[in-house]
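Reopening: structure tokens for the zinc ion complex, inputs below.
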Amino acid sequence: MQGKISRTMLTAGLILWSVVAASGDGAAQVVRAGPPTCKAIALTFDMCPVREGSGYDAPLIAALIEQRIPATFFLSGRWMATHDAEVRALLAVPFFEVGTHGQVHAHLPMLDEAKQRAEISGPVEVLRTRYGYATALFRPPYGEFNDATVDAVRALELRFILWNALSGDPDPRLSTEQMLAHLTSTVRNGSVIVFHANGKGHHTREVVEDLYRELVVKRDLKPVTVTELLDGCEQEPRR
Ligand SMILES: [Zn+2]
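Re-run output (same inputs, fresh job):
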């Protein structure tokens, strides 16, 4: 019985996901997770602008590289402007993917469509002209958007990436254990998890390392980049 229910739910979820992915209308373009049949997850790290501090969680990035953990970074234009070497360092890692996170980290719904488009395209252009990198991904600051945002992202031929699992790492009151407990109960097949790698995350490295052991070793969920999750994910075999 258990198997029958989960199989039905899985099929329903897959059909729903296909419809959403194939449809061209507004909200349908907003991606919160990969296919539910996907035995993989995407660890994502926002690079929001910072007023003080290094703006770069070097021990976290080093741990990801050392353990060869694929990750996706969403860079804001303002952050890139002061982190040229760090941008190059991220782009140099073959199992990292780089997306964008707006120019100045604005509240997009407060801007008209032309201003939103300029805000979204800023870091896309910088990546293309200064670094020769064609990015395919955009994540709105604060996860805030309206129809104009979706239209602008579509016009720029970017993928609109949100998340379905929050690490909570900007909150200094959360302990590593609390964050881990929340994530292990929310993360499922195809999850996109949001963290910060701009030095403003609390316990981010510890949580990523513990989560890696929990999800990859115990639950066999493979970490992949966002594009791999959406396009090239290894599907769970049909039974
Ligand atoms: Zn941000």
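The two ends are 14 Å apart (CA to CA). Residues 46, 48, 101, 105, 141 surround zinc ion (CB under 6 Å). Marking as resolved unless the reporter disagrees.
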